[in-house]
Amino acid sequence: MLSLVVLISGGGSNLRALLEASEDAEFPARVVAIGADRDADGLAWAEEYGIPSFTVPFSSFDNREEWGDALLEQILQWGPDLVILSGFMRLVPPRVVAALSPRLINTHPAYLPEFPGAHGVRDALAAGVTETGASLIVVDNGVDAGPIISQERVAVLPGDTEASLHDRIKPVERRLLVQAVLDIANGYIDLKELARA
User: Where does (6R)-10-formyltetrahydrofolate bind (predicted)?
Assistant: First the structure.
């Protein structure tokens, strides 16, 4: 059974998908703790599912490194097999990446390497492309630059807004994430091998 720590900054829709998947006794992974960098709405899922949660507010620290060390300390208490950045809107410092990689993965609402960064959906619309996508990656020290675990294209429709396009990308992200966790747990995806490639 794979143990997961999920880090969020917002509503936690990907987190919710994992929690729903793990309600199936056959699903080979369980969320053991949920963390956030702010008072995120998605922490309500922790309460609903009876899962421990923690918050490490970025604003409480003098710099990113100190914040990262405190975040890592919280994560390591749970001994997770896998840490998932799911709508987590902060870059984690290199020490955190070094301690957790390659068992640190991230969802992103674009078909990487296209449109990395915090505004992938908006950037895709601004570029006028006809399709974008969703990606799941192993986190490295770049911005959405790590090895790709899985990805899928999503069409950009005429008249799409940032909100409407993001609403169509989110279900694809959720499906990719749940499937990847399943494949990692079952040995079909080897993160160490991916990180070496």
Answer: 64, 89-92, 106
